[in-house]
Amino acid sequence: MRTLLVIAFLSLLGSCGRKGDSTFPARKDLTQAVYASGKIYPVNDYKVFAKLPGYVEKIHVRVGDSVKVGQTLITIRSEVSGKNVEMARNQYELAMKNAGEGSPLLIALQQDVASARTKYELDSANYQRFANLEKENATSKLQLEQARTQFDISKQLWLKAKSNYTATRDRLNTELENARLQFEAQSSNQGDYIIASVVNGRVYDI
Question: Which CATH code of 2.30.29, 2.60.40, 1.10.287, 2.60.120 fits the domain covering 55-199?
Answer without folding.
Answer: 1.10.287
